[in-house]
Amino acid sequence: MLRTRFAGMTDTGLLRDHNEDNLLVSEEYRVVAVADGMGGHRSGDVASQLAVSTLSDFLSVTVGRDATWPFPADPNLTEEENYVVTGLRLANRRIFDRSLKTLADFGMGTTIVAAMFSKDAEHVTVGHVGDSRCYRLRDSQITQLTRDHSLVSDAAHMAPWMTEEEVRQLPANVITRALGIREDVLVDLVTDETRHGDVYLLCSDGLSGLVSDDQILELVMSSGSLDAACKALIDRANYFGGTDNITVVLARVEEVPDGNKRAFVDEPTQESR
């Protein structure tokens, strides 16, 4: 039997004056998420906070309860896939509605990546919109499970005839999909079969834009704990300039010790710096 252990940390970075990232670590619902807000004034942090709070609220009133869902469940999806898709679609609607109410919030949005583990921790479902990422670290290898919804990534994916030089000339910071921009949103899903020892890393582009995949792998594998790994990753991003807010969430899959039949363990941590 498997269980999951969680940790998370967010940091303003060295150049921004406030943090527009938000994170969710929910042991109760086996869910973690990272949201990276965008918008004028302070609307970016409003959007990212709405995203994670809406997802948390949705789970609290639906998981294990006979509740009415805001959107019909898809019979072709698993239970976890339906929870993730519906939670993110609801978050999108709330951000969109909020953006129409005041001029200061108009046009705000947020990227998000969320992961929900099954009760036995043998599967994880990742839903994402935007360029916040999920990686899997397994057997000394790192694999990006999500594909950025960005102009550069879309071009490389849909126009494979473009040369690397042509792709590099595209603006690197253009997001092609985000929560809150339209009334509804398409959520991309990845469901992965877990193994003992796997580490799943969710992050904003404040990390992935500055720290290479190989360095991420080395820092996580060499850290003595998930908390230490989160701090090491953020410190490395700041070492390379800390040009954006940096948020990291880690989930490690472990075997349940003999005599302990819980599917996940205590004391998930969240830290903001």
Task: Determine the mean pLDDT.
Answer: 89
Estimate what percentage of residues fall within beta strands: 25-35%
Give the biggest beta sheet: 6 strands, mixed
Note the gap between the termini: 35 Å
From N to C, what is the helix and strand string?
A: EEEHHEEEEHHEEHHHEE
**Number of helical segments with 4 or more residues:** 7
CA radius of gyration is 18 Å
Low-confidence stretches: 262-268
Plain-language structure description:
The protein is of the alpha+beta class and about 270 residues long. It has seven helices and eleven strands. The protein has helices at about 45-60, 80-100, 150-160, 165-170, 205-210, 215-220, 225-240; strands at about 1-10, 20-25, 30-40, 110-115, 125-130, 135-140, 140-145, 190-195, 200-205, 245-255, 270. The strands form two sheets. It has a six-stranded mixed sheet with strand order 7-6-9-10-1-11. A five-stranded antiparallel sheet has the order 2-3-4-5-8, with helices on one face. β6 and β7 (about 140-145) form a beta hairpin. The longest helix has 21 residues, at about 80-100. It is globular, with a radius of gyration of 18 Å. About 45% of the residues are buried. The model is unreliable at about 260-270 (pLDDT under 50).
Structure summary:
The protein is α+β, with helices and mostly antiparallel strands and 273 residues long. It has helices at 43-62, 79-99, 151-158, 164-168, 205-208, 213-222, 226-239, and strands at residues 2-11, 21-26, 31-38, 109-117, 123-129, 133-138, 141-144, 188-193, 199-203, 246-255, 269-272.
